[in-house]
Amino acid sequence: MKAYLAHIRTTMKLTMRDRIVLFFNYLLPLLFFIVFAQSFGADRGGAISQVITMVLIMGVLGSGFFGAGLRAVQERELNILRRFKVAPITPLPLLVSSLVTGVLAYLPSLAMILLVSRFYYGMPWPERWLSLTLLLTLGLVAFRSIGLIIASVVNSMQESQIIIQLMYLPMLFLSGATFPVGMLPHWLQMIAQFMPATYLYTGLNGILVRKESLAENWLPVTGMLITTLVAIFLAVKLFRWEKDEKLPARAKLWIAAVMLPFLLMGGWQLYRQDNIVKAKTLFREMRRNRALLIRGPRIFTGERVISAGGLLIRDGRIAEVYETVPPEKDAKAEVMEAAGKTLLPGLIDARVHLAMLDGGMERKLAAYLYCGVVAVRSVGDPPELRAVRAKIASGELLGAEAVADASPRFDQPSLSAAEARVEASLGKSALLDLSLVLQVAPEGMIEAARKLLKPDGRAPGETLEAASDKLLRAWKAGLPLLAGTDSGIPLLVHGPAIHRELQLWVKAGIPPHAALQAATSANAQALGFADRTGRIRKGLEASFLVVDGNPLEEIAATERISSVFFRGERVDRASLFKVD
Amino acid sequence: MSETAIFVRDLHKSYGSLEAVKGIGFEVRTGEVFGLLGPNGAGKTTTVEILEGLRPRSAGQVSVLGLDPARQSREIKDRIGVCLQTTNLPDKITVAEAMELFAAFYSRNTDTNHLLDRLQLREKRDAFYSTLSGGQKQRLALALAMVNDPQLVFLDEPTTGLDPQVRLEIHSLIQELREARRTILLTTHYIEEAERLCDRVAIIDHGRIIAMGTPREIQARTLGQSLIELRTAQPLPSLMPAFAEAGKIVVSDDRRSLTAWSPRPARTLVDLVKWVDQTGVELADIHLKRPTLEDVFIELTGKRLRD
After folding, report:
1. 3-state SS class at B288
2. pLDDT in tens, A384-432
3. Which pTM value belongs to this model?
4. Distance separating alpha carbons of residues A468 and A475, to the nearest angstrom
5. Of the four, A183, A491, A506, B156, which is 20 to 30 A from A133 by CA?
6. DSSP alpha helices (H): ranges in A120-177?
């Protein structure tokens, strides 16, 4: 025990005297922190957790591979270990001392980064600070153990450099230390699952962003514990005090033995994918949590109109609604100028048939979101919907929220459905040529649909005029109106139909204001999630669209979508249909 | 305390098919300074490392301070002091910290201040290792070897690579240890070091002990002839009488110097001087060299120590 303490104390002193160590442990992380924080816009909220995780992972990798690994080789090569060989000690105090001092020397860096995050970037103290510290400690210990096992099996400085670079660089670039894992193509993410640093990334990020506990991260915790124990056991067995003692090349396979838990976990992830999903959703949360100030748009709140106001969103929610244009420097947020545009709550389609029409469920719900529809009520509840719904809820996938509800209380005439039925019975395909329809339809679908169309001579049921008339009378009678489309029937492609519906309502004589209200706040009320969405109001989900022009005067303006926001994230509409 | 500090009988050590030590046996008495001499690869280091408990042996009996190094290496390491060649310490460790660190490894400690005083390292207490001179580093290595107040000290080439001044300092330290009745096992390349410091010496070559005894005994036991060298101002005549008692005589090409070996050097010296005087050649220089351990070593092994 005396030997352990003495060695730890001495190594600690030596560490603090070593300028290189100080640079890599404290100055470099701080520099990277500031660079990342600036480039990720952390001072404007949102990405700070991501930036902290990145810098911590970088630090852990450096501490493990260079601080522990390379240094251990150096001590052997410089004949320092030789001096210890004749003392009545085993290698264990030296190895344990490397682990302990690595952690002790690194923790001030964590404190420093959290302090800067707190006081410069305004991030609250991490709620799960103990879990964060423990997981980071475990990460340091595991990576230093990996470093020590590398030192145990290499025969020279050059060999250690090569092996360390071979392990360090992929981990640096693929495991989330330089970009969020969620940004990478899927196949690279799969490869990343074989690296312990990836689990440290999802673990640390989960603790910071989702306030997870250590126990919720039992998988990486177990993996790193096993790695540490195996590595230290082998490092004692393979320990060499002298540089002249060489190990055969096959000894390097022991590195694989130490990495085995993560090789197994990687294999398991190929099948389970849950850590990949976690990385993707964490990335999504990062995008959702950013702060953005939208200046100057006309705002339709779902009930009333603000002629030129502003909106601040943060952490996926509406943080503030401004009645006048807010000053640019008001909040720490990215700024989007939107004067002359109209911001309105995400549209809701109260009646669709998701099981109908070709195309996968994911694609259909993505098409809704593309068109600014953030939620739909599906009359049926096809089994494939459930899995997709869960993926959308977790953020793994982007798409409109889909509620399944077959109750007839929503049944009211759909003008776009009436129109589509009439057109279909006449064999006309003009509805397929609408711009938004062409934008969202899967390749080949329009052509296929067109070929099937021919006049069938059957009565189309209710005409558009009759349906319009019925709707107008209902509105005049003061009945509550909900906007639904029956999308899924022939000619009514999933996604854009609600815009057509609104146009037909206005043509029928309903004022645009009332039509928009039906498609937003009224629908949200009827579907039971008015407390979350459907309005532009402080505290609700930041799901809305920004359109060019003024739909309150010219309803077709809703189709001229400038941007769609879903739960705080500005949806990259162009890549919504990308399959990876 | 037992009279025998180290006991070795029929010690063998093989590395695969290579036999590095082929049946060595010797005994070191308590309080004795025992020297192991031999060229590189002779088996010296292997033997010493077996004694220090750093290497297992292949066969034979070994006892160090009454303990078996193969089974009780920890106890042995705790009680001995070892000063290895070419060891290093981290650059930024101070002398005092190094002493403190190594002291923590042993169950028994000596007064480190006193030790540093004796090794003239007191004023260097807070100096970083990297700032020490070669001699200071070596003195620190000795201090570290003494930190557990060992009964038995192994010194592996303690003065190799040091300048003569520092070498003398180290020699006087070893003398001091000897006066304090510590047992010392010294390996060295320097014959004069062995001659000067050791009570007894064993010469090892090819894994065997080829001679053992006091330096004087070893010199006497060999054929050791003294050597007479003379130089003259003019060339010596080519015709030379036979000198009684003299061994081989070699004259240089320019005939201005002559080397003669003799078991009875006084007699040969007189004969030589007489002859030179008779020839009328002026004698420039003459001296007589007694055989050294080095000469003995060359005679025994056919090679120089520092090959």
Report:
1. strand
2. 898 899 999 999 899 999 988 877 776 777 999 999 988 888 888 889 9
3. 0.83
4. 11
5. A183
6. 129-153, 157-174
ipTM, 2 decimals?
0.80
A246 and B CB contact within 8 Å: no
Task: State how far the Cα of A81 lies from the Cα of A49, in Å rounded to an integer.
Answer: 41
pLDDT of residue A401: 94
Q: In A, which residues are within 8 Å of B78 by CB distance?
A: 88
Cα separation, B170 vs B157, whole angstroms: 11
Residues 6+ apart with CB under 8 A from B166: B134, B135, B138, B159
DSSP assignments along A52-118, one per residue: HHHHHHHHHHHIIIIIIIIHHHHHHHTTHHHHHHTSS--SHHHHHHHHHHHHHHHHHHHHHHHHHHH
Q: How many CB pairs under 8 A join A and B?
A: 61
Tokens representing A347 are 């549209």
User: Among all chains, which residue has been given the structure tokens 């423990």?
Assistant: A134
> What are A258-268's pLDDT values in tens digits?
999 999 999 99
- For the four alpha carbons of A501, A506, A510 and A512, in that order, the dihedral sign comes to positive
Instruction: Give the DSSP letter of residue A42.
Output: G
**What is the bridge-based pairing of β-strands B59-64 and A310-314?**
unpaired
Alpha helix (H) residue ranges in chain B: 44-51, 73-79, 95-103, 112-118, 134-145, 164-179, 191-197, 215-221, 265-279, 293-301
- Facing residue for B105 by CB, picked from A14, A18, A89: A89
Place of tokens 């460790």: B93
Output phi, psi for B162, to 5 deg. -100, 155
Residues of chain B with pLDDT under 70: 1-2, 221-224, 244, 302-307
Tell me the average pLDDT of chain A.
90
Measure B93 CA to nearest chain A CA, in Å.
7
Instruction: Report the 10 Å Cβ neighbour count for A47.
Output: 23
Three-state SS for B21-67 is: EEEEEEEEECCCEEEEECCCCCCHHHHHHHHCCCCCCCEEEEEECCE
Instruction: Name every chain B residue with its beta carbon within 8 A of the beta carbon of A75.
Output: 90
The answer to whether residue A83 neighbours chain B at the CB level (below 8 Å) is yes
State the DSSP string of A253-266.
Answer: HHHHHHHHHHHHHH
Q: Look up residue A445 and give its amino acid.
A: M
Interface test with B, best of A7, A71, A86 (most B CBs within 10 A): A86
CB contact under 8 A, A10 and B101: yes
- Model pLDDT, residue B304: 60
Give first-to-last CA distance, chain B, whole Å: 40
Measured in whole angstroms, the distance separating CA A392 from the mean position of its chain's CA atoms is: 11
Cα separation, A438 vs A448, in Å, equals: 13
> In chain A, whose CA is at the least distance from the CA of B84?
A83
CB under 8 A, 24+ apart: contacts of A526-529: A526/A350, A526/A409, A526/A410, A526/A480, A526/A482, A527/A348, A527/A350, A527/A375, A527/A377, A527/A403, A527/A405, A529/A375, A529/A403
Min Cα–Cα distance to chain A from B147, Å? 11
Q: What is the DSSP string of A433-470?
A: GSHHHHHHSPTTHHHHHHHH--------SS-HHHHHHH
Q: What is the DSSP letter of B237?
A: P
